[in-house]
Amino acid sequence: MTDTEATTRGTEWLAGAGLRPTRQRVALATLLVGDGQHRHVTAESLFAAVCENGDSVSLATVYNTLRAFCDVGLLQEVTVDGSKSYFDTNTHDHPHFFWEDEQRLSDAPADELEIARLPGAPEGAEIASVDVVIRLRRKSG
After folding, report:
1. Which residues does 45 contact at the CB level (< 8 Å), separation at least 6?
2. How many other C-beta atoms can be found within 10 angstroms of the C-beta atom of residue 70?
3. What's the pLDDT tens digit per position in 31-90?
4. Rounded to the nearest 10 degrees, what angle do helices 3-16 and 23-33 cross at?
5. Rounded to whole angstroms, how far apart are CA atoms 46 and 28?
6. Which of 26, 33, 38, 58 is found 20 to 30 A from 9 (Cα to Cα)?
7. Are 100 and 84 within 8 A, CB to CB?
8. What's the CA gap between 91 and 86, in Å, rounded?
9. Dihedral sign from CA coordinates of 84, 110, 47, 49
10. Which Gene3D superfamilies did the record assign (predicted)?
11. Which of 40, 41, 35, 33 lies closest to 16, judged by CA?
12. CA proximity to 17, closest of 90, 75, 92, 72
């Protein structure tokens, strides 16, 4: 895939959500979806990738842009440990593996997950979503 094709894919991804294609948004969108593959990133890992690519974007802009992408449904935020956020380009409901040793998130097979029953929501509330993060660590020995 050429750089032009990747940029076009990123620009179209933004347009599909009604977001104006600013230089910074296009640079980040191209890294996120330019090759057509789903990925899980942190703000810091995306910032490092955009810098490596030679683009000039601040870390604050990366955070703000990821938030904007989530707000319009382009990304799904997955929180691990209550403080570490990963951003997933696959916005369909699906479980995740969190590799503790590598601090890495990956998709888990959704067809193997069964949730037989959920507790009822408290009075006046409804369940908005269920996030499943399965924590993994390498076996020792």
Report:
1. none
2. 16
3. 999 999 999 999 999 999 999 998 889 999 999 999 999 999 999 999 997 778 999 999
4. 110
5. 8
6. 58
7. no
8. 12
9. positive
10. Winged helix-like DNA-binding domain superfamily/Winged helix DNA-binding domain
11. 33
12. 72
How far apart CA 9 and CA 33 sit, in angstroms, is 7
Write out the two tokens for 50. 């955009």
**Cα torsion angle, 26, 31, 37, 40, sign:** negative
CA-based angle 14:76:39, to the nearest 5?
80
Query: Do residues 65 and 23 touch, judged by C-beta distance below 8 A?
Result: no
Rg (CA), the chain: 17
Beta bridge partner(s), residue 77: 87
In angstroms, the CA 52 to CA 40 distance is 18
The residue ranges of every structural domain in the chain are 3-80, 94-136
pTM of the full structure: 0.88
Q: Which two three-digit tokens encode residue 26?
A: 């296009």
Q: Can you tell me which residue has the tokens 């990963």?
A: 86
**So what's the architecture of 3-80 in CATH?**
Orthogonal Bundle (1.10)
